[in-house]
Amino acid sequence: MGWKNLFTQEIAIDLGTANTLIIYNDKVVVDEPSIVAQDRATSKVIAIGRQAQKMHGKTHENIKTIRPLKDGVIADFYAAEHMIRGFIKMIYSGSRVFTPALRMVICIPSGITEVEKRAVKDSAEHAGAKEVYLIHEPMAAAIGIGIDVEEPMGNMIIDIGGGTSEIAVIALGGIVCDKSIRVAGDEFTNDIEEYMRRQHNILIGERTAEKIKIEVGAALDQLDNPPEDYAVRGRDLMTGVPKEIMVTYSEIAHALDKSIAKIEEAILTALEMTPPELSADIYKTGIYLAGGGSMLRGLDKRISQKTKLPVHIADDPLRAVARGTGIALKNIDKFKFLIRD
Ligand SMILES: Nc1ncnc2c1ncn2[C@@H]1O[C@H](COP(=O)(O)OP(=O)(O)OP(=O)(O)O)[C@@H](O)[C@H]1O
């Protein structure tokens, strides 16, 4: 290990609305939900990540759980800073006497404003970063998928995360056109909560709704490999008593239909904005999907039916952006599209 490595360490952060991943020495060393538990009276952060998630929806009046990011951007600066600091500490887990200077690459949604960008940089700097580079999420996803982003070839990437769906056409190391909408996995979860309340008179929490989405969520009401019906437990709105009901994937497909239609609409808009030479490339290569939301059953097929284009889901879609951010970290000098200031 050289002196440079001893005093400066490089990490890549996929700071997401739902999950935060940190890559250090080419490995994912942190993969935790982006959530913080705070003492209401003292504002002290008492838990972060998985530990805080266990408390989510089950807290008493002295504790609150916060998701510091909303729609892909920092909504609570104090909580975000503590969360980043805590996750960075997990890398060293007490094995170091001093904290090294940190060089970080962090990904950001492509539709982010200057103020929102500043908030990410400031949080990282307060958490110990000396040098911060930002990369747009679809670019990171493309790199993580294994696409040569610097080639004179158009590729369409759709990153469906927790807070945002980012649709981008990438060529020659840049984003040629993009469309970012604040409809993604979290909105699907809300739709399910709302549907269960309206349709079945049952009140469920966010964690249960997310579980339903993962176990029986679907984008189409007819699937080739349908999941089994799922038992949902919650509170009966009429009687106030806990109850259990069975839900089918077709019902969930119905509940998610409107949100998925919004994503489809955004994809069509992005395709319309694409310059013709790049359209020709995309016709050949198809569309690449990444992000946890892309794991919804049948979503690739539904997008393919709508666009008449082949759709490919990234390997390990939840980690594609982090992988790409990690590769960007190793190419800081080469990748001109990283944002420095
Ligand atoms: N098997 C699955 N089926 C459907 N959705 C899933 C599945 N697994 C995870 N998700 C959803 O994926 C979303 C998280 O994805 P991801 O980690 O890519 O987002 P993020 O990077 O945190 O968010 P953003 O990019 O918007 O900031 C959550 O809404 C989660 O519920």
From TrEMBL:
Protein family according to the UniProt entry: Belongs to the FtsA/MreB family.
Q: Which NCBIfam families match?
A: mreB, PRK13927.1
Give binding positions for ATP: T17, A18, N19, G162, G163, T164, E210, K211, I212, K213
Q: Which residues cross the membrane?
A: none
SUPFAM superfamilies named among the record's database cross-references: Actin-like ATPase domain
Could you list this entry's UniProt keywords, alphabetically sorted: ATP-binding, Cell shape, Cytoplasm, Nucleotide-binding
Please tell me whether the keyword Disulfide bond is annotated for this protein.
no
Predominant location: cytoplasm
Tell me which InterPro entries the record gives: ATPase_NBD, MreB, MreB_MamK-like
Q: Which domain of life is it from?
A: Bacteria
| Protein function | Forms membrane-associated dynamic filaments that are essential for cell shape determination. Acts by regulating cell wall synthesis and cell elongation, and thus cell shape. A feedback loop between cell geometry and MreB localization may maintain elongated cell shape by targeting cell wall growth to regions of negative cell wall curvature.
Molecular function per GO: ATP binding
Q: How does it assemble?
A: Forms polymers.
Q: Among the entry's GO cellular component annotations, what is one?
A: cytoplasm
| GO BP, sorted A to Z | cell morphogenesis; regulation of cell shape
The protein here is known as: Cell shape-determining protein MreB
Print the organism lineage.
Bacteria, Pseudomonadati, Bacteroidota, Flavobacteriia, Flavobacteriales
Q: Where in the cell is it found?
A: Cytoplasm
